[in-house]
């Protein structure tokens, strides 16, 4: 398997507030996740979340010793669970001899103890793009495909405030049990550009955002940092942002877009948010 792995260490807000724009990008933005025929992985020190992208083209991508070595175990999911959503063409995930066929926007949960994992595209000319998150796990729950139809659909926002959107909860206690990993997908409607506004914090969990379905010349201005000292990132399609517990995480795009959010930490309560008064943002 062709794999590229990185490690991102945790940053305190007092450090981030002294960083240049380039240093902010280096520490919090993952610019490349989908490379044809490769698996790109970033191991973070925020709740030990692993963020990865697999884009199989010619043949299978097999998860091997590179990622096991990264987390210090004999195989990747020896003490971890994994969730993914396919944002590309139709694909397959082979897990311990079971083949899981995934259409675009289908998700998959793999339990702690799954040893053999491989990724494949049905048509290499329209490759699958598996966006992957993995977090430490304390027990084993059943692996399961979570199709877009299985996800819980929520209508949020309003066109008058430019944030009308649909939020789909894939890995969520009302859908299936997991140890700590939560994943979902949000899609902005045409004419809406703001996500997660009013902003909030959740000091008990970290979050990662993957932005996608943006036109080539479009981008999202992602706001981060403490409410009283905000910073920003310019994020292109299929790039991801690491959001520490002390940081807000919201943004506005130059067009409608979609993003996958994922969380790991102390609890699985989706509503565990410390809301930020709009007047306090600086």
Automatic annotation (TrEMBL):
Nucleotide-binding is among the record's keywords: no
Cofactor(s) recorded in Swiss-Prot or TrEMBL: Zn(2+)
Domain of life according to the entry: Bacteria
Keyword annotations of the record: Isomerase, Metal-binding, Zinc
Function text: Catalyzes the isomerization of 5-dehydro-4-deoxy-D-glucuronate to 3-deoxy-D-glycero-2,5-hexodiulosonate.
Organism for this UniProt entry: Neorhizobium petrolearium
CDD domains linked: cupin_KduI_C, cupin_KduI_N
Name the record gives this protein: 4-deoxy-L-threo-5-hexosulose-uronate ketol-isomerase
Gene Ontology molecular function: 4-deoxy-L-threo-5-hexosulose-uronate ketol-isomerase activity
HAMAP family linked to this entry: KduI (MF_00687)
InterPro entries: KduI, KduI/IolB_isomerase, KduI_N, RmlC-like_jellyroll, RmlC_Cupin_sf
UniProt cofactor note: Binds 1 zinc ion per subunit.
Gene this chain is encoded by: kduI
Positions that bind Zn(2+): 200, 202, 207, 249
Entry's family note: Belongs to the KduI family.
Enzyme class: isomerase
Pathway(s) per entry: Glycan metabolism; pectin degradation; 2-dehydro-3-deoxy-D-gluconate from pectin: step 4/5
Catalytic activities: 5-dehydro-4-deoxy-D-glucuronate = 3-deoxy-D-glycero-2,5-hexodiulosonate
Key word Zinc present: yes
The EC number(s) this enzyme carries: 5.3.1.17
């Amino acid at each position: 398997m062709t794999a590229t792995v990185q490690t991102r260490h945790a940053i305190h807000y007092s450090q981030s507030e002294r960083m240049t724009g380039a240093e902010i990008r280096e520490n919090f933005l993952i610019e490349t996740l989908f490379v044809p025929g490769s698996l790109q992985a970033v191991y973070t020190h925020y709740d030990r979340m692993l963020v990865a992208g697999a884009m199989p083209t010619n043949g299978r991508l097999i998860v091997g010793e590179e990622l096991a070595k990264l987390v210090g175990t004999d195989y990747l999911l020896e003490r971890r669970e994994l969730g993914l959503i396919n944002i590309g063409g139709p694909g397959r995930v082979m897990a311990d001899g079971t083949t899981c066929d995934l259409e675009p926007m289908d998700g998959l949960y793999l339990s702690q103890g799954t040893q053999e994992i491989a990724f494949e595209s049905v048509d290499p000319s329209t490759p699958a793009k598996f966006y992957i998150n993995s977090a430490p796990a304390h027990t084993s729950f059943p692996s399961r495909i979570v199709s877009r139809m299985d996800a819980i659909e929520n209508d949020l926002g309003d066109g008058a405030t430019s944030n009308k959107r649909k939020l789909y909860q894939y890995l969520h206690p009302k859908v299936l049990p997991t140890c700590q990993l939560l994943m979902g997908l949000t899609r902005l409607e045409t004419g809406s550009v703001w996500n997660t506004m009013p902003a909030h914090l959740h000091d008990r969990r970290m979050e990662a955002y993957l932005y996608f379905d943006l036109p080539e010349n479009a981008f999202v201005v992602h706001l981060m940092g403490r409410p009283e000292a905000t910073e920003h990132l310019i994020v292109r399609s299929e790039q991801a942002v690491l959001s520490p517990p002390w940081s807000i995480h919201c943004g506005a795009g130059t067009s409608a877009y979609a993003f996958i959010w994922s969380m790991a930490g102390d609890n699985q309560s989706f509503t565990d948010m410390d809301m930020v008064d709009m007047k306090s943002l600086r």
